[in-house]
Amino acid sequence: MSDADTARRKEARKFASGRNWDSWPQYQAAAGGLQNYWYPVAWSDRLGRKPLAVQVCGLNIVLMRSRAGKPHALQDRCPHRGVRLSQGSQQFPDTLSCPYHGWTYRLSDGEMVAAITDGPDSRMCGAVAVRTYPAEDRLGLVWIFVGDRPPHPLDDQLPEELVAPPPFAVGGRIEEREGNWRLYAENGFDEGHAKYLHRTALWRIFKVMPTWNKIHIERDGRWLYRVEDERHWEADFPGLGRWTNMRWWKLKPRQMEGRMLGNTGGSAHNDPYIASLPLKGFASLSLPGVLRIAYPQFIHYEFYVPVDENRTRYVGLMVQFKRGLARLGFYLHYLTVIRWLFHGQFSGQDHWMVAETDAPPERLYRPDVSVIEWRRLFSEVDPGCGKASAQPANPTVSDRGEA
Amino acid sequence: MSDADTARRKEARKFASGRNWDSWPQYQAAAGGLQNYWYPVAWSDRLGRKPLAVQVCGLNIVLMRSRAGKPHALQDRCPHRGVRLSQGSQQFPDTLSCPYHGWTYRLSDGEMVAAITDGPDSRMCGAVAVRTYPAEDRLGLVWIFVGDRPPHPLDDQLPEELVAPPPFAVGGRIEEREGNWRLYAENGFDEGHAKYLHRTALWRIFKVMPTWNKIHIERDGRWLYRVEDERHWEADFPGLGRWTNMRWWKLKPRQMEGRMLGNTGGSAHNDPYIASLPLKGFASLSLPGVLRIAYPQFIHYEFYVPVDENRTRYVGLMVQFKRGLARLGFYLHYLTVIRWLFHGQFSGQDHWMVAETDAPPERLYRPDVSVIEWRRLFSEVDPGCGKASAQPANPTVSDRGEA
Amino acid sequence: MSDADTARRKEARKFASGRNWDSWPQYQAAAGGLQNYWYPVAWSDRLGRKPLAVQVCGLNIVLMRSRAGKPHALQDRCPHRGVRLSQGSQQFPDTLSCPYHGWTYRLSDGEMVAAITDGPDSRMCGAVAVRTYPAEDRLGLVWIFVGDRPPHPLDDQLPEELVAPPPFAVGGRIEEREGNWRLYAENGFDEGHAKYLHRTALWRIFKVMPTWNKIHIERDGRWLYRVEDERHWEADFPGLGRWTNMRWWKLKPRQMEGRMLGNTGGSAHNDPYIASLPLKGFASLSLPGVLRIAYPQFIHYEFYVPVDENRTRYVGLMVQFKRGLARLGFYLHYLTVIRWLFHGQFSGQDHWMVAETDAPPERLYRPDVSVIEWRRLFSEVDPGCGKASAQPANPTVSDRGEA
Asked: Which segments carry the region annotation Disordered (chains A, B, C) (predicted)?
């Protein structure tokens, strides 16, 4: 190929609109969510005898709590005429009745146990049921299992340090946001954006972030870790000038002893439990969209729960392993600062960018190794739950009901 | 088939999503409305020389009243550039002019009689016309005939007792609501829902409704009647408990003498005209979506007029056969109570459920015999008016106009 | 053909819904705009170092001004992840940086000159670029050239009298409006509607307009002129009555000496520059959607800039060739009267009708010769820019970026 040809090709590539996602077919197929996972969907203390509607992986689900205090999850559609059961109410203990004609379903197995307006001898009882989903309370959240297999224990999926943790306090936000859940996960784990996008976040007002760095990704079990190799506080761009995040009032984080946890600020008082964890880096990510950011004194988690292909339920948790009075201090800190600056404005910048993201096509660059490794994880799991496959395979029965 | 097989099949049917409407093809085809019927579309006293836009069976129609007081209905689209004539105004008596260029149509036959901006010698006059629809005033309403045949007399279609009634008073509401007109009709005539859905309606605050009953449907002429065979004020559901609508402050309706008109409250003072009518039951339904509920002292009518496939014009009328001072009393009763409790909150519950209904698929039960008989009526009439067939069959003429 | 047949055919044509646009294929293909033209998109004094997003011919474009004061126009999409560059900011002189990861583009040629979060040695620099569009300031407006050829001089496209005009003053409005740009152009040049639609405009409160007239269209260079042949102040419509715009308080415009400029009011003090122009009529129209209305003392221009197929950027300019104090008087007149009555209410009536227009199908009449001649112009120019063809023909390159 002549030099002129090479130059021409190089020139053409400059304007190339980028590549698509064909090389990650499992990733592409998971737009609507991944099957056979537990998802946190609501605060436990918001769930009682009043039905609560949620949407996960494109499925409409109604939650309700039994007398024994157990959460239950049922398909949110009465088979009679398609009315949402979440519009109904409890007429008998541990059941939920459709508001239209009083078709009444048992919470535990979804079976219709009474059609109130058809009397006790109704022939529909035992002949109609709605699907149920496994549900559990954990960490102050209600979790439901969406899949076509028997559920694995929720413990197998929780961040390991939360399975049997010391006493801890939790503050958090649950919000439904526009944008696909995978883009939220990529944004959360993305090495490049924090240093630039979030430079204006109040959360960072007293802390310098590097201008750029070099990283690699390490895998440990189901977790991917970003590990920093080089850090540059400022940079001179030829022909343009110097760029830096440093300001006279900002602190540079100290290197953490032994290992570098990334671009966070340091702290004089590391939490001993966090310090004892075998974390390979500041930020880690696992399927089905769980981000963990280990600060010296608390850990921040983000669960990106697929609502449908275009919406994501953001579940942000800040966990501190404190007891007694210290716990009270955390709640005070959370409610006065963290909730507004971190779970509010900082996280709002991510929301803004995910809503802006219009990929594919895309052109990836060096820091996107974090994104690429994340996409590779999808080849190891069950295919995503398109709405069709996740719904129970109920053939339409052409009986004429009982009428 | 082995017992195990039978059990498995039975189990599978429980979760079956239900059946579709393939067995009622005429009903399915009538989503956009039925042809060759009169439809009430507006209060007569709201129609004058100002054009009024309505949509019926997917057709855009403009109403206007002539000097002689007659209502007229024209296609609401100027053939010139597609502007709605209802945006225009009267420039000459008994005509309507398009707001854009003054193309002027005669109310009586839709013929363009002047193109104001083209002068008296315009060659378009007599060469362009818009379709007209038969229109009449009756019962305080403007009715228009939508169809492809000459209209039958409106009298043939009115509830018989309203063709030559004694003096009467009317109160009512006209509202455009979301949801298909057939679902409104089914909801109105549906035996099952009233006793459960409406148990919380203020309209029912002093009257018990049964918990369940058994009915059959009787046909008389064009009307279907719900006839009650058994009535149960309360019921014990095995393993669940007792359910009842009875409260200490509520009255049980007395059986009406001679025949049972259904789940309404009784009255010491039956209206003699209503008592004289050969009604076979409390609730009756006829095509094209007319519900009649005969109370001892007044009759309530609901006309479910198709706007398009997704919206319905609800025309609710309460008619009392009174004259003089009693009539005044009715209006007072209507405006202070009926309008808010019955045509408002009670009817709003129906609106809520129709908007919620997501059928097919569906699973019908014993009380839905009312729904099934209604759907059978559709096999006796002209096919529904899809937008395509109801519009005049005007081939596109490839002349170049007059320019 | 028998008389009966003729009558039947004539009757059928009356109701014919009209003809489509098949006979003007180039016009039909130009729904999204015309290529290889300059378009005014914003006021020059609104553009500085803050990026400004505009949409033209379906293209998303970001505008920014360099230190030297030159306007620049770039494709408004970062190739990295598809974020709009208009959401970003200037980090280095004469560049624009994406808000997400700091990818930084040179305004002059769109080349990416820095990926801030990837350091000075980023391999993406020089390998990625966004498309740029020629941009210029003229007449107080920023103009951009959309096309696939090198741009012709903007002078070749400006109304001739504005290329080297005497001192002048400009008042104007820029508004995005719903409706296709071609319908705005047709409405602006349409002979028929002004006399009828605008009869209620306050702008016309003291001036009579004719009831109807006869016109022909003359072509001069790229301009079409409406030339009036007959004018009728009032008309008697047989069987209907007399129709006129005349009122006792309204003035009839005097005929302008030598030639008739159409349905405008006359003026005792014609502007000498306007009087010297070789205009063949009051209203003239040229591609790509420029209307010129020559009043005795000022000229009004409307540029109908395609945003996309359904929206139009209306750029209305009122130009008076005055200097010194007279110029001040014009601005006073513009801000107190013209802006509200002409660019506001009068032009709002046009907006209303374009939004109402639902063509094709359509039936054209004698005054629509203006519309027909306009559509014929499209056969002389490059095909319209469908979104597909106007975007740079960038094949998706299946490299894996730099990661």
From this structure: 383-403
